Amino acid sequence: MTDLLWEMSATELAAAYRTREVSPVEAVQAVLARIEAVDPVVNAFVTTVPEQALAAARAAEHRFVNEPAEDLPLLLGIPVSVKDLTDTAGVRTTYGSVHYKDHVPDRDTVGWARLKAAGAVLVGKTCTPEFGMLGVTESPLTGTTNNPWNPETTAGGSSGGAAAAVAAGCAPLAWGSDGGGSIRIPASCCGVVGLKASMGRIPVHGEGDVYGSVDTSGPLTRTVADCALMLQGTAGPDPRDPLSLPASPTPFTDALRDLSLCGLRIAYSPDLGHGHVASQVLRRVEEAGAVFTDVLGASVRPVEVELPDPLQYFQDFWAPAFAVGLRDLVEAHGWDPGASHPMISAIGDLASSRSAVDYWRTSVQTRGRISEGFAAVFAEYDLLITPTMPTTVFPHPGPAGGPAWNEGHPVAFPAIDFHRLTEPASHAGLPALSVPCGFDDAGLPVGLQIIGPHHADAAVLRAAAAFEQATAWHTRRPPLPSTPPSPSDDAL
């Protein structure tokens, strides 16, 4: 059994630790061996910390032996990877940039600090595009992260390393970040679960602007139960983040105790009112809708959602943010934008044609219109489902940053078009989750996005868990080695 411990979910491991069926040391050893076996193909990790991980696992094992189970933290001994945009004190954090290739922070950001306090065991830092500024995961420092289902295709971004690591069995939990889809897009590409929680649910102090940003950190996991477990370990207020939400009176894990959805009203939009969606994606999402009605007892009705053009809004909102960030890097650190992916500079350059008045209109007025569009839906429905992506998983795009065509339809802005279904929920501050809903004709995953009204994180998790239980898509595994390779003659 021990050679397949990497397949166990965090929920399963937590239970097995408490019955002494499995030890944290065995689980961490299995995950480290799995990373060694598959990461040369996937390229999900920029840094691994095996000695630190094993030391933490031994400390966790000692606590399981010597302390009452009810006193032990939620994630004690559970292996986790952390996206390399998140500061981890004493562990190299590069932000995907050659300029920071040797950077070792002296502090933990909030998300990792809470995971560590909950007992999670860090096994490594996962790849990100430079400063998280791309929808695919490639950078001059780490190269390209590959999709475990087909290494010739993208893992998405910017949490592509995190999603690929989870899908490949390199720890059951991963910590990512999402501003316009950077958790949900990779989750869809890699066939895992990814949650962007409600704005304020997980504090962003130290990782983003607490007033002006739409960024949030959050979990990528193989199961919805693990996603709820991770959210439970990281949610709650922080006095340094004035928009952070109070702790939930009911644990998020309790939301999964009763998965009956009878009477739930679900709205369905295939496109959020903008752009072409691939036929294979629509088939899988419509089949998911049938599961909600025919198996789970919910009602699903098509709706029209009135939202601003997400591609235009992406440019209006993010271009100034990119421009400010890039200017700071150039002035303070001598960073060379010419050495980065061309799309990073291209998005930053868009800001030169926009005035402060234009930016104010975008950041305040247009965000208000987005919130109004979703509010109209949630006045009549409990949840909204959409595809996570408008396209199937695509080959590594190179300089374009994304596919230029979608089933014969030209794409105006390839680097961001495949984020247009995830972007709006971010700017409205709504909880949104991607859960696997099947595979396309090439055997690559398709994601279903479940969006909830403000602060309805538990309802989103509950619906996702019920769908997961009814379909079991999460039990499928990518065609990667199941055991570590035997040593070669040269290594003996």
Structure description:
By secondary structure, this protein is α+β, with helices and mostly antiparallel strands. It contains 14 helices and 17 strands. It has helices at residues 10-18, 24-42, 50-66, 110-117, 160-167, 184-190, 224-234, 279-295, 310-333, 342-349, 356-378, 414-417, 423-428, 457-471; strands at 45-48, 79-83, 121-126, 138-139, 143-144, 146-147, 150-154, 173-178, 193-196, 216-221, 265-268, 299-302, 383-387, 405-406, 409-410, 432-439, 445-451. Strand 11 (265-268), helix 8 and strand 12 (299-302) form a beta-alpha-beta unit.
State mean pLDDT (0 to 100 scale). 92
Roughly what percent helix? 25-40%
Strand content: 15-25%
Q: Give a short account of the largest sheet.
A: 11 strands, mixed
SS elements, strand count: 17
What attributes does this structure have?
15% strand, two-stranded antiparallel ribbon, 17 strands, 492 residues, alpha+beta, globular, 11-stranded mixed beta sheet
Annotate the secondary structure layout.
Layout lengths: L9 H9 L5 H19 L2 E4 L1 H17 L12 E5 L26 H8 L3 E6 L11 E2 L3 E2 L1 E2 L2 E5 L5 H8 L5 E6 L5 H7 L2 E4 L19 E6 L2 H11 L30 E4 L10 H17 L3 E4 L7 H24 L8 H8 L6 H23 L4 E5 L17 E2 L2 E2 L3 H4 L5 H6 L3 E8 L5 E7 L5 H15 L21
Parallel strand pairs: 2-3, 2-8, 11-12, 11-13
Antiparallel strand pairs: 1-3, 4-5, 6-7, 8-10, 9-10, 9-16, 13-17, 14-15, 16-17
Helix pairs in contact: 2-3, 5-6, 7-14, 9-10, 9-11
